[in-house]
Structures are given as structure tokens and as C-alpha cells.
Amino acid sequence: MEKCLIAALSVLYLAIVAQCAPPRLDPYNFDGVDFYQLFNDPDGHLKLNPRLKTDDLIRAHEYPAELHHVTTEDGYIIGVFRIPYSHKLQNQKALRPIVLLQHGILGSSDNWITMGPDNALAFQLVDAGYDVWIGNARGNTYSRNHTRLATQHPYFWRFSWHEIGYFDIAAMIDYALETNGQGQKSIHYVGHSQGTTVFLALMSARPEYNAKIKTAQLLAPVAYMDNMDFPLAHATGPYLGHRTTYALMLESMEFLPYNDFILLLLYNTCGPDSRFLKYCKKLHNTDGRTNSTAAAINAITTPAGVSTNQFLHYLQEQQSGHFREYDFGKKKNLNVYGAEVPPDYPTHLITCKTHLWYSDNDEMAAVKDVERLADTLPNKVMHHMDDPLWHHGDFATNWEVRKYINDPIIEIMNEFENALRN
Ligand SMILES: *[C@@H]1O[C@H](CO)[C@@H](O)[C@H](O)[C@H]1NC(C)=O
Ligand SMILES: *[C@@H]1O[C@H](CO)[C@@H](O)[C@H](O)[C@H]1NC(C)=O
């Protein structure tokens, strides 16, 4: 049974990140297969072999790139990338407002640049004069580091997205403000999917951070999940969204680190005669809506490593209908929270200007759930996508992401900055 659940979770993962349907490989005989070569796309600007890191990808387009190690209050060391200025503008001396970009679950900083210099938000922002910081969550490829714990230590994986928001995002904001060196007191924030959840968790649990936010752009915001139209969550939720033996068994483990075996699985699961193909098709871009070069690069740089608790916490939300902290079970809840059930996030305390970008065809962030969240936010702006087919992944890799998402976001930030300076 546990194998079954692990398989179900794997499929949940695959459905989220499977991005292409390449030829099938023989799982019994894949010695010597060069995955980097298989994913390579000759039309892409970026070489995949050898595997490039975020800063290499940035430099491949001639932009300056920096890697910073940010230590959180609870000892995790997060890898954060920065594009400090634009080589086109040569604006290193000018005032460059800070913006922080935060990826979704199983993703990494790579996801903000794979669309290339003309379409990726990170490059567009730096060319618009911003100091661009690209975050990583604890546990992913770039954030497998701790002041005391080794990643092999089971305690390393005892976190969900609550801690990513509460500690990692807070630390990145403070670090960027300090390092920028221009006396800025606040930043712009852009998050996709889990990158929105962690923001909402931080801003409600530590409301003093609202003062550090100029604008927040939440793409496909995920908080309440009970209307989510995601078959695998419905299938696994009843088992894993409560304190069952299954959930306990899977708790606090590393889930799918980046490695060749996973890439093989990814290849085969979404291959032409796969049983799961319909999920891959339904959820991802065999529909011609997506930039396949960017999707291929994302496929090879993902999965970036997460704790199973991040999934369990989401499934708890889907089952409970609450947006609340992690459920450890009655006994430990009493110790940790002083109550048998975990506390709801007080989202009404999120006073910063919050823009919600959402769509009808989003299988993770249902319109009803986004609107329920919005009702609690005192200072929000709603941006409903006109395109009825726009889905969760479109916010990252749709052909027209520049027109529908990136350009409007940058305009909102520019307006904010212009108002400051006039
Ligand atoms: C871990 O963090 C330390 C301290 O910031 C840093 O010097 C080191 O390079 C990091 N290691 C990895 C593998 O990122
Ligand atoms: C697709 O992404 C690649 C970079 O990965 C970029 O070079 C190309 O311009 C993009 N194409 C479109 C039409 O967005």
C-alpha cells in the first residue's frame, strides 16, 4: 500500500512538472544515456550539456550574475541569485529598485529565466532598471545547506512551505535590502504558485513584513484549495491529508531530488503509450500553448528537491478547507500551537498591496478559492485572465506570458516607482 501511495505522490509530481513527451526509454537498460543531450534543444539559446546553474544561464545571455548564501534564523543556508544591473543599460550607479522572484513547488530560480532574454520576467525586469533577486526554497538544488544539519539528516527535511515563507522569504528580503546598499526600505515581490503560498504565510504570520513590500504580484495564488480541480489530489487527499499512518510514514522526507533516475521516470511516464499520458496532456503543454524550448530546459532543471511535508501540508488544506498551519496531530499541535487544531493564517493582516493574477482553467488555483482568499485581503487588486484556456503553468511558460503577465506587472511596478519619485 505504501508503494501505491508513493507512486501516487510521484504521479502527482509528474503531473505538475512533466513538460514534454519525448520518445520512451528502456528503464532496464539506460546505462550511458545522456539525459542532458536528450533534453537538449538545438533551437534554444542555452546549452544543457553540461548542466548550467542559474548564474551560468544568466551569464550565457551576457548579464551579470551573482550567487549569495543567505542564512535563515533556523540555520538553513539558501542560495539566492541576483542580476544586479543590466549590461544593456549600464545602470550600476543608478537607483535600482529591488524585486524578489520566488518559484513554485519542485521548481527553482532557473524557472524565471528559461524563457530567454526577450520573454523571461527576470531579464525584462533587469532591463527595466530593477535589481533582480531570484530566490530558492530550502531543500531545492540551490538550498541544500545548513549551519548544523547535513541533508542526509532526517531533521533537515522537517519543514513545509510554512517555514519557507516564515524563515526563507523573510531572510531573503532582509538580505536583499541590506546588500543592495541604496538605503531602500522595501521591495517588489513576484511569486508563482507555492511562491504565493509562502508569501501569504509570511505576511500573515509576521505582519511587520508588510512594511517591506511595495507591491506583491501573486501568479496563480494558492491558499484555500477545496475547489481545486486536480484529480490526483482528490485521489490521495483522503489518505495523506489527515494524520493517517500513510501520512506519518511519508512525513519529513526528501521527495524526488534532482537525479538521472527521476529524469528517466519523467521521460517514460509521459511517453506516447503511458497510462498517465492523459494527465500530462491535460495539465501541460502538448497543447501547443507553451514555449517548448523553455519547457525542455525547465524539465531538465526540475525537480529541484522538496520535503514531503510541502505536499502533505497542501493536501491538508485541500481536505480541511482551511488555509492554516501544518497539522502535526492533536498532541503535538497542543505543544506547538497551544490548541488541538492548527491556527488559520490571519490573512486579513496582509495590508500590503497585493495583486492576484488568476484564471478559469487553473487546475491548482480555482477561481472560487482565489476569490475566497481575496475577500479576506484588505488591499488587493484582481486580475482575471481573459483567455479561458489559461492554466497553472501558463503563468510561467505560455508563449504570450510577456504580453499578458510580464509587461502588465512591470507597468504596475513602474507606476509605483514613478509615484515615489514625483
Ligand atoms: C554552504 O554555505 C556556506 C556558508 O555560506 C558556503 O560557504 C558554502 O559554499 C555552501 N555550500 C553549498 C554546497 O552551497
Ligand atoms: C522560447 O524560449 C527561448 C529560450 O528558452 C527563447 O529564446 C525564445 O525566444 C522563446 N520563444 C518565444 C516565441 O517566446
Automatic annotation (TrEMBL):
Belongs to the AB hydrolase superfamily. Lipase family. This is Lipase. The active site is at 193 (nucleophile), 362 (charge relay system), 392 (charge relay system). GO terms for molecular function: hydrolase activity, acting on ester bonds. One of its GO terms (biological process) is lipid catabolic process. Gene3D superfamilies: alpha/beta hydrolase. Residues 55-115 form the Partial AB-hydrolase lipase domain. Keywords: Glycoprotein, Hydrolase, Lipid degradation, Lipid metabolism, Signal. Residues 1-20 form the signal peptide. PANTHER family: LYSOSOMAL ACID LIPASE-RELATED.
